[in-house]
Amino acid sequence: MSSINRTVDNILKGKISIIQLKHGFRYGFDAVFLAAFVNSFLLQYKRKDVLLADVGSGVGTISLIIAYKNKKIKLTAIENNDQYLELAEENIINNNFQKQINLLNCDVFNISKDFLNTFDIVVSNPPFYKEHKNRSKNELENHAKVIMNIEKWIDNSVKLLKDKGIIFLIITTEILDLVLYHLRKKTGSFKIFPFWPNSKKSSKRIILVARKGGASPTELMSGLKLYNKKKLMTKKARLISEKGIFNFS
What we know:
The chain has a single domain (about 5-245), classed as Rossmann fold (3-Layer(aba) Sandwich), CATH 3.40.50.150. It is built from 7 helices and 11 strands. The protein has helices at about 30-45, 60-70, 80-95, 140-145, 150-160, 175-185, 235-245; strands spanning about 5-10, 15-20, 50-55, 75-80, 100-105, 120-125, 160-170, 185-195, 205-210, 220, 225.
């Protein structure tokens, strides 16, 4: 792949470098904040030898951030787009995570039975725009942003989990009811963490957590305001993006 069509960007204050396409889908706060949220959860997670799947992993941003903060976790990054896979492989090598992250060329809509009921945790930043809108002339961007079959995406992601395994999703509030409807078939114990652009605007993104076979009451968490009145990132949001982990204290 020509270097003319790529950029190299640094995250976590330069701790991780990401090669990505110059034009098309590029990682944003969704990937960084979802990985940071999972990292905060893993601090309290009691199981050892954790197996984690990153479904629809793209160029590997989420997997890299989680691997950086959790040296003992084994990750499987699942992606089926050839260009993203090529970049993800470079990113894994360049950041020295070859022993920790396994890159799997696999379609989430057609996952091998060998991987079912395998993982303790599944993480995903799925395509969440409805197909009839938010389309781009760039097909790679559509591949990463536009819903093709959210029901099957969720269903297959949950199938990857062991019993009592946990799934972490970041989605738009617009499709929350749809996602909950499909998750209720096999999961419960929902936790909802909203992001607000500022103190005056409603939430447009949420992190949704569910446990396979869970039955605890739904929890609406405190959430996070991203920008202050001066349109600058809040101190808490900035620290999360720099450190790659939430501080709930």
